[in-house]
Amino acid sequence: MTVRIILDTVRPPETSWCWRNDWYSGMCSAYALVLKFGMLNAVSGKEIAKAFISRKCGIKSETCANPNVDLRDARLFDIEIMAEAFRIPPREVRATFLFELLPKSGTKSSEHLRWCEACMARGFHTPIFQMTLVSACPIHQMALRTFCRWCGQSIPYRLRQDLLAMPFCCPHCKADMAPGLRDARASVLVPRPRERIALGETVAFLRLEEETVLAKMEMERRVQQYGQGELIFSRPSADGRMSRYIGFVSQVIDHLRFAKVKAQATLAMEALERAERGMPAAAHPDDEDPALQYPSWGNQIEHMSNSETVGEPRGEAEMRSVTTVYQAVRRHLWKHVIRRHRRCVIAAARHLWWRTDEETTASFCPVAEAYIRWRMSWEGCGTPRYLFGAPRRAFYGVLGWVSSRPSPCPSHWSRPTQHWVIDHIFANACVESFRERLADAMENDAKGTIHWKGAFRPVRYDTYWAVTGSDVQGDPTVVYLRCPMPHPAAAYGLPGGRQHRKTHLAQLATIVR
Length: 513
Ligand SMILES: [Zn+2]
Ligand SMILES: [Zn+2]
Ligand SMILES: [Zn+2]
Fold this sequence. Notes:
513 residues; alpha+beta; 18 helices
């Protein structure tokens, strides 16, 4: 006798749901999708659960009786049915759930709604807003909200009866969060290509974060096996050039992974600089920078940094060490980069005897402008002439930079190593910031005007770095840095001769107080 087993695979009868294709914005979250659906069909949370909760999940009837489902997690949902209802491919439905997009994001995401008010006003919400690491909207650069502006309460990120009763309203105080959707010609936010890139880069960055965590675990495994140490990365800089940061981090990871396999070729996205802690090099204070002709604080620093530093607050020693680096970079620029324009610099600094902030003046020799403005910002000096006056008591830009940063090293590393690491990172930031000032000055030269705005804030200036190793013999500390980009070539094509100086002086003469 044969037994026939008949599987009950009959689908629930098709209900004709209402949906508008122009209400699907792409890169959006299950939250936005479900709420829009609820709004267009004027259905309750229970009915949505009945339509979208998978029959295979085993708890469909309980869920439908009192829906309370985490919208980060796709497991209870019937993706095929949703794809049909929203007329999009199933893989796009999956991407609306955070845990499908970023599978390891459980502990790093919020179970309460995190939203951008400008996006939400037009019915847009993306799963990456739920990541606690994402603090601002990549489209609007606005801080994300975690509490209702009107009643101060948080909103659950769930499929629930109360949330569907009034879609896109605060469930506590009923404040309308999406007025843009309410009128007949609703303006639904659909990210434009540039905005899609910004969102895509954020996802790429979050994925990279996961990879970094994995690489860190891999490093920890190596610590046990071969005694190899830490892996610490800089935060992405605030300038929003996420793709460069991602390029940098992936390269370091590749480099570490394949350090022993020489044949492994990697895509060179960012040139890397690698420094291994060896014997500290001695500084040579020979230079022609007139600012250092004085028996200044600078020279005292160099003596003191070699002396005993035990028992002294850590910030001061760090500050001294970084100040020495700053002076070394300054000397280097003066000797090897400013070269033929030293007289341009001195003439300009002598001419500009007043505080220049917020002024607009004629442009002059761009190399001189770049050097003067670079020094003004790192030294916290508002008057160009003072740069070559009495020695400064403290470099406020450098001080701000050091004091606003936690040490990048584990605290058990030796102090000299900690200083060595911060010195390297600082030197990189310092050199790179000069390149940027030079590029700005070349632009000003082309325009013919300089706007002396305090646009460059050293405190916030960062470059990309990574620190590895364990500060012991056999596994020394290693710093990876992004190579400074080449200086604008045009700056070196500038003739430094008599004609150039004549033009420069004529331009300066037009600048009067
Ligand atoms: Zn936004
Ligand atoms: Zn509220
Ligand atoms: Zn010049």
